[in-house]
Amino acid sequence: MDLGTGAGDGPRPSRRLTAWLKDAGLGFKRRAKTKWFWGSLAACLVVFIILISLQVDLQWFWLVLYAALTIPFAPYVADPTRFFRGGLNDDVTSIKAMIMLAFSVSISWVFAKSILNASVLGASFGITGGIAYAAYYTSFPAVAIVVYFLRTRHGYQSLPQAIHERYGTLAVVSFGLAVAFRLYQEVWSNALVVGGFFGPTHSTEFWLGCCLSTLIPVIYAFTGGMRASVLTDAGQMTACFGLLFGLLIVLGINAPRSFGGWNANGTCDLPGAAPTYRQCAALGQGATNLTKAEFTYINATCNYPTIDSQATCTEVGGVFKPAACAIETKPLCNAAGGQWDARDRFSLKNGMDLFIVGIMQGCLSYPFFDPVLTDRAFLTEPRTMVKAFFLGGALAAVFILLFSFMGIFGSMESVLSPYKVPDSIYKSFAAGQPSAVSKYFGTAVFSITNIIFITQSLSTLDSTFTSAAKLVGPEFTGLVEDGVPRPPTKATKWHLAMGRLAIIVVPVVGMLPLLSNPTALDATTTSGTVIMGLGPPIFGLLFLRGYHPLTFHLPFWWGGTVAIVFQ
User: Fold this and answer.
1) How far is it, in rounded angstroms, from Cα 482 to Cα 490?
2) Contact of 120 with 431, CB cutoff 8 Å
């Protein structure tokens, strides 16, 4: 099944759609005749029966269902070019190809950790938090515009090829290692988020969830490469949006306030002298028990640590700060007789600083660090690619913004109706953790949320493994063989074999950080710091002529040094 046709005298849209569905049906029939199809489907059925006999939690069945809907139907690709380019060649201009590419780039960049972070930021800053994280998706038009000119004005077929020609071998090796670091981070960060739905961190269930959710995309990325990734992405994106709208209906029906107008942040000015810790705890407890208390007590301090008396501190010329009680929610502040000073929803302290950072990194550096995005920018005809990236970026940003409503709901409900939230999940619920918020509504909503996270994680991972295959195969192996990274159009069977080896090695190495206790946000902040200096040399590719290695190395290693020092 080809994903597109050339421009010109194509059939009418209705006939085109009919031909597409017919072609898809024939593709299914061809795959259904293979031993791989029936063998993998039978394996999923056996696992399904075993899970039923063991009476395991419902969430495990979603992983098996996902495997049954992807692995048997994923194509086996033997042609190297098709494996690395997915059949989306430079002359492909059809609407079908544009939509397929848009869906692919969109869901490949809506990571499991991304929707987790969006929900947490929604709880922390309201709608501003969701907007701030969505700002990163300015990456799509930034990549589309830069790569469009790299392809049309300079004829480059990959980003490493352009970097090698302008900045040299050391530059392309440095860039490749930075990209490898990014891919390595994607493995553990996405597995970490999904594993949390199956059990506490480092529990047996957690590790099984992490390993199985990583193994499934390894299998079909190994067999089909970019071809399998693009074909599965379309179905995954459609399913995720459908499930998200169902989730939003539940949240909207139960929301005590408007999502857009909610702002929980502010300060409480309490009357009279500063209370003791017990008095502060009582004020912050309100009508709830202590596990749901919303207060921060700051002990009296002197800038001389050994002095705890105000009189002595003043006598020796020290600076004494009296004890302070901070009530953290408006209802409790009002109940305590205090004056609530709401923070401006669009102030820097309320998340707009994150929005500015998102815009800057999204436009100037972050996207060029991720081959999941840049590899796809070299697929299809250049103008078709630009349309796909603008559409895909819009879809991804909307998804992120809407998913932040889950965190906003957690913040609203925990502040306005804390007595409704079970003690066991209150802390995570108030912080906007999707697993806690969805568990609040019961098994059905928890399952919907779990499926969204599984789908987002696995779609990101199959793209990660596909990009790792391209990096190790034609690019690094080609660099060793020929002294220049090979574009996918000139890949050989040997490059294909090396790429498939990378698909096996990368997930194993990428899971190792889970032995410690990283957080999903670590992957974003660390990556963002590492690539602060990557934007200028990438933009320089559009204008520079000749050989200019220092143009790459000075900003790149400056950013890397800052990352090492501050992380």
Assistant:
1) 12
2) yes
Find the angle CA(448)-CA(376)-CA(190) to the nearest 5 degrees: 35
Greater confidence, 415 or 26?
Answer: 415
**Which position has the token pair 């200096």?**
533
Label residue 307 exposed, middle or buried (CB < 10 Å: 0-12, 13-18, 19+).
middle
- Residue 93: pLDDT band (50, 70, 90) is confident
Give the whole-angstrom CA distance, residue 301 versus residue 321: 5
H-type alpha helices, 196-289? 204-254, 277-285
Q: What is the pLDDT of residues 367-402, one digit of tens each?
A: 888 899 999 999 999 999 999 999 999 999 999 999
Kindly state the tokens that stand for 297: 């007590």
Helix residue spans in 86-158 (DSSP H): 95-109, 112-125, 127-134, 139-154
Site of tokens 């929005």:
355
Nearest in space to 368 (alpha carbons), one of 159, 58, 541:
159
What are the tokens at 542? Answer: 């559009």
Tell me the one-letter amino acid at 245: F
The CA distances from residue 55 to 50, 60, 194, 279, in Å, are 9, 10, 21, 49
Contact 8, 91 (CB under 8 A): no
Half-sphere exposure of 339 (CA within 13 A, CB side): 4
Angle between helices 139-154 and 95-109 (to 10 degrees): 130
Contact 446, 182 (CB under 8 A): no
Question: How far apart are the C-alpha atoms of 330 and 186, rounded to whole Å?
Answer: 39
Strands 324-327 and 266-269: unpaired
Cross-strand partners of 442: none
Is 122 within 8 Å of 411 (Cβ atoms)? yes
> Three-class SS of residue 234?
helix
CA angle 520, 525, 527 (to 5 degrees): 100
Helix axis angle, 443-470 relative to 169-195, nearest 10°? 160
With bands split at pLDDT 50, 70 and 90, how would you rate the model's confidence at 147? very high
CA dihedral angle for residue 43, residue 49, residue 51, residue 53, rounded to 10 degrees: -150
Indicate the helix (H) or strand (E) that contains 324: strand 324-327
Give 510 or 35, the one with higher predicted confidence.
510
Instruction: State pTM to two decimals.
Output: 0.84
Q: Tens digit of pLDDT for each residue in 187-206? A: 988 888 888 888 888 888 89
Tokens of 380: 């299809």
Give the rounded percent of residues in the chain with a pLDDT score beyond 90: 42
- The residue type at 301: T
Statement: residue 31 has pLDDT above 80: no
Question: In angstroms, rounded to a whole number, what is the distance separating the alpha carbons of residues 479 and 172?
Answer: 9
Residue 499 has what pLDDT?
95
Give the DSSP H or E segment for 295: strand 295-298
Residues in the chain, overall count: 567
The neighbour count for residue 499, using CB atoms within 10 Å, is: 30
The pLDDT tens digits of the residues spanning 32-66 come to 447 778 888 888 899 889 988 888 888 888 889 88
Indicate the SS3 state at residue 267: strand
Closest CA to 267 of 341, 350, 338: 341
